[in-house]
């Protein structure tokens, strides 16, 4: 005998069965509806890109690039990577499709699969899905304000509790970050032996990422570390202050987090995370920021841009159990093969009216068919037997009210669909 086939999904992935898929679809459709009210157009990018799209633009020292990407060489010798995040591919699409002529431009993606090799945990999988939005061509701070407001709006549309707030920081310009980076190196170098191994590596490669450390010893050293805010110029400070004022105007709760840098190197100026009081330690829901230099890194002219991403699985976990409207079908109960054939014809017409309709295609007893109708919580059953075929009138039963009538197929359509089809 050969080796048995592995019948479990790969670690960090899962099968979304119909009930879970229905919740995912509800999240995606609700978010997309809100995106469209803000004037965003949907974009779909390839599941894999040239590895350089991520390595050069996300940052070759970031955890995503050094530890988490699924990278491979195809048969043509091209080095490719499965998409680990959404912004870089959208920026690549902006550049390669010559979208500069359409500025300002709002693009969004919904239910897009992402892949990261990381430790699987609840709401954080190796294959996960994201919704996200990107705005190109607007340099002013109101772009950040509107994006954050839009995220709050879709959280509200999903029925989430009103307990969200925004953590903000400003990373300033590349020149300001460079000066701050030098200050961090000067501060941490005398304490190098006290840093975690990961932060020692970051000190040499990407000192700002030390601010992201969860190590208790690192956090103690961070308490007296220089603050990026002290290295911002007047223009960057004014931009950040305007974002805060805009959020105040919209009654959106916010707080400054001086250690918030995000895990991607392309950010500049405002970075933000939306958190929930109800989620405890894993409270982050939405994350994003401004990335004015990313298109320039790809070879185009610098274009101001800002965006965010949010995990679909994370949003689904936060949904109330009854948040998604239940699909309740109409179920046929048939007595013989001729009744089933006639039922299939009427079922197609009812489906054309937007109803979900079930017909028993296997020979089951009336009792078994009624049991199935109850199990799927059908709104109505339509009974078709020899008497009904002879009279041309089928029995329509309201399963909630317990009432029933004998009606022609045309009258059943009118009753259930609100008119003739």
Q: Please indicate the percent range of residues in DSSP E strands (runs of 2 or more).
A: 15-25%
Number of helices: 15
Poorly predicted runs are: none
- Class from secondary-structure proportions: alpha+beta
Topology overview:
Blueprint: H1 18-37, E1 41-42, E2 48-50, H2 51-55, H3 63-68, E3 71-73, E4 79-82, H4 87-96, E5 105-115, E6 127-136, H5 142-157, E7 164-170, H6 174-188, H7 197-205, H8 216-222, H9 234-249, E8 254-256, E9 268-276, E10 284-290, H10 294-297, E11 305-311, H11 312-318, E12 330-334, H12 337-352, E13 357-358, H13 366-375, E14 380-384, H14 386-391, E15 394-398, E16 404-407, H15 409-417
Parallel strand pairs: 1-5, 7-8, 12-13, 12-14
Antiparallel strand pairs: 2-4, 3-4, 5-6, 6-11, 7-9, 9-10, 10-11, 14-15, 15-16
Helix pairs in contact: 1-5, 1-11, 5-9
How does this structure look, described?
This protein is an alpha+beta fold. Helix 1 packs across helix 11. It has an eight-stranded mixed β-sheet. It has a five-stranded mixed β-sheet with strand order 13-12-14-15-16, sandwiched between helices. The chain has a three-stranded antiparallel β-sheet with strand order 2-4-3. It has helices at 18-37, 51-55, 63-68, 87-96, 142-157, 174-188, 197-205, 216-222, 234-249, 294-297, 312-318, 337-352, 366-375, 386-391, 409-417; strands at 41-42, 48-50, 71-73, 79-82, 105-115, 127-136, 164-170, 254-256, 268-276, 284-290, 305-311, 330-334, 357-358, 380-384, 394-398, 404-407. The relative contact order is 0.12. Helix content is 37%, strand content 21%. The chain has 15 helices and 16 strands. The model has no long low-confidence stretch (mean pLDDT 91).
């Amino acid at each position: 005998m050969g080796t048995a086939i592995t019948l479990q999904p790969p670690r960090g992935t899962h099968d979304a069965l119909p009930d879970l898929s229905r919740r995912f679809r509800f999240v995606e459709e609700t978010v997309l509806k809100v995106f469209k009210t803000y004037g965003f157009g949907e974009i779909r990018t390839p599941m894999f890109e040239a590895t350089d799209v991520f390595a050069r633009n996300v940052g070759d020292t970031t955890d995503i690039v050094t530890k988490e990407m699924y990278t491979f060489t195809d048969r043509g010798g091209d080095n490719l990577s499965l998409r680990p995040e959404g912004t870089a591919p959208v920026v690549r699409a902006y550049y390669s499709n010559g979208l500069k002529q359409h500025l300002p431009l709002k693009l969004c993606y919904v239910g897009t699969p992402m892949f990261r090799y990381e430790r699987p945990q609840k709401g954080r999988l190796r294959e996960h899905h994201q919704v996200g939005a990107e705005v190109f061509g607007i340099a002013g701070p109101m772009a950040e304000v509107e994006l954050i407001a839009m995220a709050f709006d879709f959280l509200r549309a999903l029925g989430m509790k009103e307990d969200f707030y925004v953590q903000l920081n400003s990373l300033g310009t590349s020149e300001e970050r460079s000066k701050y980076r030098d200050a961090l190196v000067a501060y941490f170098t005398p304490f190098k032996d006290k840093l975690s191994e990961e932060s020692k590596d970051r000190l040499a490669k990407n000192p700002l990422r030390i601010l992201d450390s969860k190590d208790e010893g690192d956090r103690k050293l961070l308490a007296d570390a220089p603050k990026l805010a002290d290295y911002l110029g007047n223009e960057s400070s004014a931009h950040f202050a305007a974002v805060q004022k805009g959020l105040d105007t919209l009654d959106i709760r916010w707080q400054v987090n001086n250690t918030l840098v995000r895990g991607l190197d392309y950010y500049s100026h405002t970075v933000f995370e939306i958190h929930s009081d109800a989620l405890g330690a894993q409270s982050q829901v939405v994350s994003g920021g401004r990335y004015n230099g990313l298109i320039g890194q790809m070879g185009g002219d610098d274009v101001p841009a800002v965006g965010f991403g949010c995990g679909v699985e994370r949003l689904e976990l936060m949904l109330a159990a009854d948040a998604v409207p239940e699909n309740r079908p109409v179920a046929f109960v048939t007595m013989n093969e001729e009744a089933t054939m006639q039922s299939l014809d009427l079922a197609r017409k009812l489906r054309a009216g937007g109803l979900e309709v079930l017909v028993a295609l296997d020979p089951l007893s009336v009792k078994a068919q009624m049991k199935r109708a109850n199990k799927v919580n059908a709104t109505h059953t339509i009974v078709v037997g020899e008497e009904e075929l002879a009279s041309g009138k089928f029995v329509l039963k309201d399963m909630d009210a317990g009432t029933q009538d004998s009606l022609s197929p045309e009258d059943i359509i009118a009753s259930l669909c609100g008119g003739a089809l």
